[in-house]
Amino acid sequence: MADLLSSSIEELKKRAAASMTITEKAIIAHPQTYREIKQMLDHIVADTIDIGEYQETAERLSGLLETMISSGKSSIFYYFYNNIDPRQGGDVRYFRATCLDLMEQIRCIDDMRRCRRNIRLVSDNRH
C-alpha cells in the first residue's frame, strides 16, 4: 500500500512538473498575452462587472487563454480556458471565483519562476 501511495505521489509530482514546464513555455512564447490576462484578472476581481458585460469579458479572457494553450493542453491555462469560456462550459455564477482562482495560480507560478532565477546584485566597489 505504501509503495502504491509513493508511486502515486511521484506520478503527481511528475505531472505537476510537466504542467509547469508547458505553462512556462506558454508564458515565454506569449509574454504580452500573459500580461493582458493578468491585467484583465485585476480588473475583473477588483471592479464590478455588469451582467451585460459578462459575455464579452469572458470571451475576451478565454480568447487570451486559448492563445496560451497553444503550447500544450496540460498547462494551467487549458483548465481555466474550459471553465471561463461560456462556449466551453463557463458559468456566469462562478466567473469571478474562477478568475480569482486563476489569479492565485498565476501568483504561485510567478513566485516559482522568481525563485528559480539566480539574481545577483553586482556592486561597483570603485570608490
What is the count of DSSP helices, taking H or I runs of 4+ residues? Answer: 5
Query: Overall 3D geometry?
Result: globular
Span of the ends, CA to CA:
65 Å
Low-confidence stretches: none
User: What is the helix fraction of residues, given as a range?
Assistant: over 70%
Q: Total domains, how many?
A: 1
Rg of Cα set: 18 Å
Order of helices and strands: HHHHH
Instruction: State which percent range the strand residues make up.
Output: under 5%
Assign the structural class, choosing from mainly alpha, mainly beta, alpha/beta, alpha+beta, or little secondary structure: mainly alpha
Mean pLDDT value: 87
- Number of DSSP strand runs: 0
Largest sheet: none
What does this structure look like?
It is a single chain. The mean pLDDT is 87. This protein is globular. It starts with a helix and ends in an 11-residue tail after the last helix. It has one domain. 20% of the residues are buried. α2 (31-46) runs antiparallel to α3 (51-68). By secondary structure, it is an all-alpha fold. It contains five helices and no strands.
Task: Considering the chains and any ligands shown, give keywords for the structure.
127 residues, 5 helices
Which SSEs are present, and which pair or pack?
Layout: H1 2-29, H2 31-46, H3 51-68, H4 76-84, H5 95-116
